[in-house]
Amino acid sequence: MDADSNRLGGVKQSNWNLPNVLTSLRILFTPVFAWLVLSERWWWAFGVFVALMITDKLDGDIARARGLITDFGKIADPIADKALMITALVTLNIASSLPIWITVVIVVRELGITFWRMWMLRQGKVVPASKGGKLKTVLQTLGVALYLCPLPGWMEVPTLVVMLIAVVVTVVTGVQYLVDGARANRTPA
C-alpha cells in the first residue's frame, strides 16, 4: 500500500475527499486564526476557531461513515488538531490573560503523548484515543473559546475555572494513556 492511499477491496482510494479537504483547511487556516488572535480581533478569532473545531468533528465522522479513511487523514488529522490547539494557547498567552503555565502543561502533555504513541506504534502496539481524550478536547476547546470571547470582567474567574478543569483532565488522561500503554506493552504484539 502506498503512503498516499488506502486500498479497499483492491481499489485505490484518493486522498482528495471531503474529510481530507476539511483537515487540510484546518491546517491552512491555523495561521489566519493566529493572526486574528494576535491582532486582537476577538470575535473573528472566536468564529474561525469554532469553525475549525467543527471541521475536526466533521472530518472524522464523515470519513468513518463513508469509508473514506486514508493514511493521509490518519497522519494529518492529529497534526492539524495539535497545531490548532497549540497555536490557540500560545497566541492567547501573548495577547490575553491566559496563564503561561497552562499552555506549558497542555503542550508538554500533548506533544509527549503524541511522541510516546508514535514510539508505541513502532513497537507494534496501538494505543487508541480514549473517551477521556475526547472529553479533554471538548474542555480545551471550551476553555479556549471562552478566552477568545470578549466577555465581561465577571466572567474571568469562570473562564479560568473551565481552563483549570481542562488542565486536570488533560493531565489525568495523559497518565491514563501511559497506564494503558504499559499494560499493552506487557502483552505480545
From TrEMBL:
EC numbers on record: 2.7.8.5
Membership in a protein family: Belongs to the CDP-alcohol phosphatidyltransferase class-I family.
Name of the protein in its database record: CDP-diacylglycerol--glycerol-3-phosphate 3-phosphatidyltransferase
Keyword set includes Nucleotidyltransferase: no
A matching Pfam family: CDP-OH_P_transf
Superkingdom: Bacteria
InterPro entries with a match to the protein in the record: CDP-alcohol_PTase-I, CDP-OH_P_trans, CDP-OH_PTrfase_TM_dom, CDP_ALCOHOL_P_TRANSF_CS, Phosphatidylglycerol_P_synth
A biological process from GO: glycerophospholipid biosynthetic process
Membrane topology of this protein: Multi-pass membrane protein
Naturally occurring in which organism (per UniProt): Corynebacterium meitnerae
Annotated localization: Membrane
Metabolic or biological pathway, per its Swiss-Prot or TrEMBL entry: Lipid metabolism; phospholipid metabolism
